[in-house]
């Protein structure tokens, strides 16, 4: 997996992992907002 540098290869298949990362970040931000 290219988790360290997902932008090195501009491949569409990398999008799902990036989206998951954004979801995790959003979840953490949500927890911080509602904590």
Number of strands: 0
Order of helices and strands: H
Report the mean per-residue pLDDT as an integer: 70
Q: Roughly what fraction of the amino acids lie in strands?
A: under 5%
The global form is elongated
Distance, first to last CA: 33 Å
Helix content: 55-70%
Low-pLDDT residue intervals, each spanning 5 or more residues: none
Q: What structural class results from the helix and strand content?
A: mainly alpha
Largest sheet: none
- Count, helices: 1
Descriptive overview:
This is DUF1493 family protein. InterPro entries: DUF1493 (IPR010862). This protein has one helix and no strands. With 35 residues, it is mostly helical. 0% of the residues are buried. The mean pLDDT is 70.
In short:
The chain is mainly α. 57% of the residues lie in helices and 0% in strands. It has 1 helix and no strands.
Any descriptors?
DUF1493; elongated; DUF1493 family protein; 35 residues
């Amino acid at each position: 997996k290219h988790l360290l540098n997902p932008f090195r290869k501009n491949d569409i298949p990398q999008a799902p992992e990036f989206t998951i990362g954004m979801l995790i970040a959003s979840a953490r931000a949500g927890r911080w907002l509602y904590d």
